[in-house]
Amino acid sequence: MEEKDTFSYDPEVLARISALKLRAVNLVEGLLSGNHRSRHKGSSVEFAEYKDYSPGDEIRHIDWKVVGKTDKYHVKQFEQSTNLKCTILLDCSGSMSYVSPNQTGITKMDYARTLAASLACLLLKQFDAVGLTLFNDQVVHHIPPRSKTSHLQHILHGLSTIEPKGITRIDQVIGTLVERLQSRGMLILISDFFTREGDVHKDLKLLVSRGLEVILFHILHPDEVSLPFEGDIIFESLEDDPPISLDPQDVREEYQKAVQHQIESFRRLCLGLRVDYVFLETTTPLDQALSYYLLKRQSLTKV
Fold it and tell me: Full-prediction pTM beyond 0.70?
């Protein structure tokens, strides 16, 4: 599905977009404050939009025709040529909507959409092109990568209208997308990785073989890590599994071992493929998690 230039004017959707933008921008500004950021220079390839003139802007980019008509100074901005095109691949299957009966942490979906919005904002501030693909067992919505600042609004709209449902099939989605992903680009995959696929290794290996830089954000709610419930409980699936009745105490220890085994397996797998792997619980403050990850990434790329 291609990017559209029209948005839903449902007041609830607009409120979610506004709140999401505020969280993302504040988080990114906090991450970047104090860091030296050089301006991205180079040949401009395509006119993108106007901005009000402010001291420090290059005079040669003032549109004098607009000045003559409006008596106001506007500077032409151009879509920069960029070496990086990034696609954020976000799981919107049913399991991402989990809400804790203990009211601990936000939903995985809210956490994941804030993470995606923050990463998109960060990439656009660096003049990189970023797109968004929402998926369950298929591509639900695809917004192609763009680098102009106003593109953030399209991504925020896509994130704000997510309704988690369906099952997860990462292999089918990657098989659909892989031909349109630019080699030497970047793919950021955000998911809880609750999938029946037996071998995610094959999917990641395919992406890496095409020259893509891959980053995995593995998001779980603390309940899904520790199984803290007590008493006989009926667990109902958010996807299509049958309900299960059991006392969590009977399986808690083995369950916790299985979860930690999965996390460590992903970590080893990604290390072997030179894929970045970041495990996050929804109670982890995003500013801390992203700051730590970006600093670690920066230290590894220094020569």
Answer: yes
